[in-house]
Amino acid sequence: MRIPDRYTVVRASLLAGTLSGAPSSAHAVVADRSVSASTRAAGTLLGRPTVPRGALAHSVVTVWWTTVLVAVLPRRHTVVAGAAAGLAIGLLDLGIARLRYPDIATLPTRPQLLDHVAFGLLVGAVAAPALRATAPSTDQRATDQRATDRRATGQRTIGNGSSSTSTR
After folding, report:
1. What is the reported pTM?
2. What is the CB-side half-sphere exposure of residue 59 using CA atoms within 13 A?
């Protein structure tokens, strides 16, 4: 696991936190339900089902899970892995929250899970370039491999960059 870059976490949190609610919002509009119902329901995590409390709860949970994802997502296939992680987070979060918070339990499951998938996908999309940029370059991996090979064969580098064999 790596230490997440704060800039990436902030950008991913803002984007994913803002846009990932689109599936449940669209569902609410089509089903003629309140678009703010899920935000109010999240407020119960902080005591009462209000929009300000729900927005704060969503923000804290978003930054937490974004930090976790940026730390553990792979450098390759980051977006797909993010979407899969979002689904897993949704199953975990909603599974636990529905046991203790009736307002969350009343929300339609599929749109909420789709919100979580969108969240993971968006975090992965924002994090992917940063994660690839931190990956060792091919040249660096080759240099590291040559150094490992020299150590294994007893060679050492002399001041001019050439190698000599040790006679230990």
Report:
1. 0.78
2. 9
